[in-house]
Amino acid sequence: MHPDFAVSWDEPEDEDTQNPLNWPPKEKWANILVISFISFLVPLVSSMLAPAVTVVSEEFHTSSTLFPTFVVSIFILGFASGPLVLAPLSEIYGRVPVYHTANLLFIVFIVGCAVSQSASMLLVFRFLSGFVGVATIAIGPGSIADVMPRERRGRAVSIWAVGTILGPMIGPIVGGYVTEKAGWRWMFWIIAIVTGVTATAALFVLRETYPPVLLERKAAETRKATGDERYYSKLSSKVSFTQMFKHSIMRPTKMLIFFPVVTVLCTYVAILYGTLYLLFTTYSFVFEEIYGYSTFAAGLVFLAGGVGTLAGLLYVGVFSDRALKKRASTGKAVTPEDRLPLVITLPGALTFPVGLFIYGWTAQKHIHWIVPQIGTAVTGFGSILIFTSIQTYLVDAFEQYAASAIGANAVLRGLAGALIPLGGLNMYRALGWGWGNTLLAFVTLAIAPVPLILGIYGASIRKVKLFSVTL
């Protein structure tokens, strides 16, 4: 390949409108907002069945103590599996084909949930809908990295990330209301309709953003126009398609196993995420048993966590990009570690366990319902600070393979979100709400130094990789 035939962005590169980084702000934000809305909608589906699990169990005549939590968490198991396939595919074929295909399959599998005739059928379609629905969760930050420069990326990732946390909190409210008014199956029909409308809009709004795919298209057009087959994309891979496919499919797994910075951060996020889903799957038991809430009212308890999450979003939006812009204005090089400043990681790492303490002991002592709700709000605040800062850190640290890095994060997070809640009820039955949540709080407090340490020493740790593997 002769360098004279390498196809790149037109010079000057920062003015080439084909480069997604140079798109008009309206076009960038249209893409980001559509992806963010789907990233809110899909996690909403993950938890919306929580208030209706007793109704579903009765309809399918199952007395299993595992089914009420597993029918919720198996969706997250799909979340854990999907990124291993979807994220690498987006780095081969582009983001948009994966989004559109996943949206269509998601609608099909959601309809499958709505018409399920047995517990096993519902479980299968819940898993499949989670598997394909995770597309915007696994690839979304990659799309954001494609269109936003580093110093403007924090706010965009925050808006995207809030949907992934707010969705599971709004889901039970929707699920509880629809179950009481129309039956549990209608919650799936409604989601299928809303997703159908959103997917149709996505067909007209979403544009391809992945630079290697865009430059390959540009090279193909140049070859066609000139009749010269020597033109090639500057970002094209020098390996065969088969080798590239194998490399891409294995990339998220390689990152998880051989890159300690990815392993540590993803494990930390996974523990917090699994803890959140343990809370989500047991809220209805707490507030129905202790406070005598109805199915719909039990769904409303998720609002407090949503308020805390929104407060955290505003906090991150103010401090994340501001720190980078300030550093850049002084002429200092911006690094991924600037995404983990103490002003974000310290409050996030500490408020998460503090909220668990408040929630657990005030519920145990039957204190007024507003107090445990404050605890869930505090935990929600801490969660969005940690999740957003780590997501943006991974994107900045692995820009070219951002989708795979976030995919690796989604895999471990999904596994924890699916498996940790399975022991939740038994733990609370054995320890009580107070000591049960205290145990969770101590675990999350013990690992709280992780983002703080990486914020200081991350540059050195990032350079470490085991066995000299290549991505």
TrEMBL record:
Could you tell me the keywords of this UniProt record? Membrane, Transmembrane, Transmembrane helix
Q: Is tRNA processing set as a keyword in this record? A: no
Q: Assign the protein's first listed, main location to one coarse class.
A: membrane
UniProt family annotation: Belongs to the major facilitator superfamily.
| Coiled-coil annotated residue ranges, if any | none
Q: What is the annotated localization of this protein?
A: Membrane
How is the protein disposed in the membrane? Multi-pass membrane protein
Q: Which InterPro entries match?
A: MFS, MFS_dom, MFS_trans_sf
Record-given protein name: MFS general substrate transporter
Q: What is the lineage of its organism?
A: Eukaryota, Fungi, Dikarya, Ascomycota, Pezizomycotina
Q: Which SUPFAM superfamilies match?
A: MFS general substrate transporter
| Region of interest (Disordered), ranges | 1-21
Name any one GO molecular function.
Answer: transmembrane transporter activity
- Record's keyword annotation contains Transmembrane: yes
Q: Please provide an example of a Pfam family that matches this protein in its UniProt record.
A: MFS_1
State the GO CC annotations.
membrane
Which residues belong to any copy of the Major facilitator superfamily (MFS) profile domain? 31-463
TM annotation in the entry: 29-53, 65-86, 98-117, 123-145, 157-178, 184-206, 256-280, 292-319, 340-361, 367-390, 402-423, 435-457
